[in-house]
Write a structure and sequence with these properties.
about 120 residues; alpha+beta; Lipocalin; 1 helix
């Protein structure tokens, strides 16, 4: 019984601690602009549109894949627009966004780090 009470107390303590952790609110206007990391680039526009290209795949900016984007608190959604009209949503958690750095990760833990260009 003591063990059960102890585990319940630990659980309640963790729940209380987690409820106090603030999710970072990132400003959409900080995302506007061109970002790059070696050969991968993304460009965000104030109207919620953007595009990305990977020069490592021999894709230049004029061939970039368009996407629509939305940033809510620390959740970044990109809906990529395919050549056949299909919409491919991608979801990320932003971990850093300031005047010079953008970092986010997907649900599988793959991280991306960009510098403002």
């Amino acid at each position: 019984m003591k063990k059960l009470c102890y585990l319940f107390g630990v659980f309640c303590g963790l729940a209380l601690l987690c409820s106090c952790v603030k999710v970072s609110d990132f400003e959409e206007d900080m995302l506007i602009g061109k970002w790059g990391q070696e050969l991968l680039f993304e460009k965000y526009f104030a109207d919620g549109n953007g595009y990305m290209w990977d020069e490592g795949d021999d894709v230049k900016e004029d061939e970039a894949q368009k996407f629509e984007w939305k940033l809510e608190k620390n959740k970044l959604t990109q809906v990529h627009l395919g050549k056949m009209g299909q919409k491919i949503p991608k979801y990320y958690t932003v971990t850093e966004l300031n005047a010079s750095n953008l970092k986010y990760k997907d649900d599988y833990g793959k991280g991306y780090s960009f510098k403002k260009l």
